[in-house]
Please model this.
Amino acid sequence: MSDFRVLLVEDNPADVFLVEEALRKNQVPYKLARFESGEDALAALDRGIHWENSVAAAPDIVVLDLNTPRMDGLEFLRIVREKPQLRQIPIAVLTSSQSPADRRDANALGAACFIRKPARLQQFLSEVGISLKSLLEGKRAEIHEN
Amino acid sequence: MKTETPHSTEEKFLQTAAHDLRSPLVTITNLAQLLTLRYRGKLDPKAEEIIDMIATEALHADLVVKGLMEYLSYTPGTAEEIADQVDMHCALEKALTDLATMREETGAAITVTELPIVRARESDMVRVLLHLISNAIAFRGQAPCQIQVSSSIAENGSAVFCIRDNGLGFNPKFADEIFTPFKRLHGRSRGGSGLGLTLCKKILDQYGGRIWAESEEGKGSAFYFSLPSARIRLPADEPVHVTAGVV
Model:
């Protein structure tokens, strides 16, 4: 099975480390492209991302922190929604926000799921890993069906 | 539906500050736990102890900040919202669903008698029940945790709800003080942000309701809250039938 292409928008290296840990713990084969802000990620998506020197391809999933420099996560969602070529990519919001308004706005802007970062490690690894895995497997199944 | 957002610049400022504080706290907590998980038995015992302390402290700070965020983001409902009909059984079910992990971990047994339908915003009632029941579980004693949720109609027609536990209890001299922000009567290991009861009071104030507690050290506590008669759907003279049931 080929690796899933995961685009992670996260400015904190420690959180990148934890997301990767969650993917590994849940046996998700992946290649990762990481950007510090939504702005950088959008520019890369427009240019095309080369995953470990392979041919440029769209990511299978975007994992998005809401609080990133220059362009926040909600703005990123808003822009992606307007781009037909990106609209099909599932976006998982991963945030420490407790605000019901953030969840409502992210869902309204088409986020595939909204994960509040748990402070308990086991919960973090399982919730993040399982949510991302099911989104990725769902997408793969969809591609096979078509 | 109106969402709960801060309504002043100062509150927005505080909420953003709380959020920015929480983000690294969650990460520190998770990293410290990961360190423990990966290197347990491979480090000097003192080092393990220090890592555990870091994780515990960060977890506590996270609870406080989370409580602060919940408190600051709370906005009273509109006149229309707080006039909704709420079946208190449904509100209780929702609160218990949110507490499923805590209940499983502690084996807390919850019994409930018949509860009325009231006029309120459902999320408010869920929140009050959730804080009171999670406190009852957090401050449990040595005996298996038992919690009773019941209701009655007071002489003045108001509905009185009671959450009674068999936990640690507290000295009754603190019965009023526990509703003030950050007042804690037990050690950090019991969890809690110190803001849960303050938020419950803030919620009930908007309904013209009350919240109070009775307790004795070592003999459990009973937390009561009331809603005025105008907020009960049943006529004040109709008795509330009390039947035992287990949730």
About this structure: The mean pLDDT of chain A is 91. Strands of chain A lie at 4-9, 30-35, 49-50, 56-57, 61-64, 91-95, 113-116.
